[in-house]
C-alpha cells in the first residue's frame, strides 16, 4: 500500500486507479496548464503547443496515460467521503472543523514527479485510513459519530433558516417607535 512521507498508509495500492480526469484538462480536450502557465515549463508547453494544445493523456489514440504527464493533477470535486459517502455539511459564519478533509493519495516519488491526487474523506475515515490498514475502497457506512455531527449541523442550519415573526419574538412589548403590537 502507498504511504505518506512519514510512513502512514494512504489506503490505496495505486493512486491512479482512483484518479479522475486532470484538473488542467478543458472541456474540449486541451491542456490548460500549457496554455496559461507556459513559462513554468517551456519545453512541455512547446510540445503541447505543437499538438494544438491537445492533451495526449486524454486522447484515446495516444499512448500517454495520466501518470506520464509531468503536470497531472486530480482533485475530487464532489464534497462527500469516497469511503463512506458522508456528505459535507457546513454552517455559514461558524468556525467549526469541517466534516470532510482532503486526503492525498500520492506523494513525491523521488523522480521529480509529484502528482497531486486527492479525494475527500470524512475525518473519521481519514483517521482510520492513516491509523490502520483501512482502505479507501472499503465498503462502509458512515460512522455513528459522523452521522450525529452531520445531523446536529443540519438542525442548526434549519434553525437559522426558520422564520419567527416579531410578535412571536417580542410578544406584547412596545416596539421602539411607540406603537404596540
Write the layout of secondary structure elements.
Blueprint: H1 32-36, H2 42-50, E1 73-75, E2 100-104, E3 116-122, H3 123-131, H4 144-161, H5 166-170
Parallel strand pairs: 1-3
Antiparallel strand pairs: 2-3
Structural commentary:
The chain has helices at 32-36, 42-50, 123-131, 144-161, 166-170, and strands spanning 73-75, 100-104, 116-122. The chain is an alpha+beta fold and 181 residues long. The protein folds into two domains: 9-22 and 72-163, no CATH class; 25-71, no CATH class. It has a three-stranded mixed beta sheet. The longest helix is centred in the C-terminal third of the chain and has 18 residues, at 144-161. It is extended. 24% of the residues are buried.
Mass-distribution shape: extended
Largest sheet, strands/sense/barrel: 3 strands, mixed
What portion of residues is helical? Answer: 25-40%
**Total DSSP helices:** 5
Low-confidence stretches: none
Let me know the average pLDDT. 86
Note the beta-strand portion.
5-15%
Number of domains as seen in the coordinates: 2
Order of helices and strands: HHEEEHHH
Number of strands: 3
Computed CA radius of gyration, to the nearest angstrom:
24 Å
Distance between the termini: 69 Å
Strand order of the largest sheet: 1-3-2
Q: What structural class do you assign from the helix and strand content? A: alpha+beta
Amino acid at each position: 500500500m502507498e504511504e505518506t512521507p512519514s510512513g502512514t498508509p494512504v489506503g490505496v495500492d495505486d493512486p491512479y486507479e482512483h484518479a479522475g480526469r486532470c484538473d488542467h484538462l478543458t472541456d474540449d480536450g486541451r491542456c490548460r496548464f500549457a496554455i496559461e502557465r507556459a513559462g513554468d515549463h517551456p519545453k512541455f508547453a512547446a510540445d503541447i503547443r505543437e499538438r494544438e494544445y491537445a492533451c495526449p493523456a486524454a486522447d484515446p489514440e495516444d499512448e500517454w496515460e495520466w501518470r506520464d504527464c509531468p503536470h497531472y493533477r486530480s482533485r475530487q470535486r464532489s464534497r462527500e467521503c469516497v469511503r463512506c459517502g458522508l456528505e459535507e455539511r457546513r454552517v455559514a459564519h461558524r468556525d467549526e472543523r469541517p466534516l470532510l478533509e482532503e486526503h492525498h493519495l500520492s506523494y513525491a516519488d523521488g523522480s521529480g514527479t509529484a502528482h497531486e491526487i486527492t479525494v475527500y474523506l470524512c475525518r473519521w475515515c481519514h483517521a482510520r485510513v492513516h491509523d490502520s490498514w483501512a482502505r479507501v475502497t472499503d465498503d462502509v457506512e458512515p460512522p455513528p459519530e459522523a452521522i450525529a455531527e452531520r445531523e446536529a449541523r443540519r438542525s442548526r442550519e434549519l434553525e437559522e433558516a426558520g422564520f419567527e415573526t416579531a410578535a412571536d419574538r417580542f410578544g406584547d412589548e412596545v416596539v421602539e417607535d411607540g406603537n404596540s403590537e
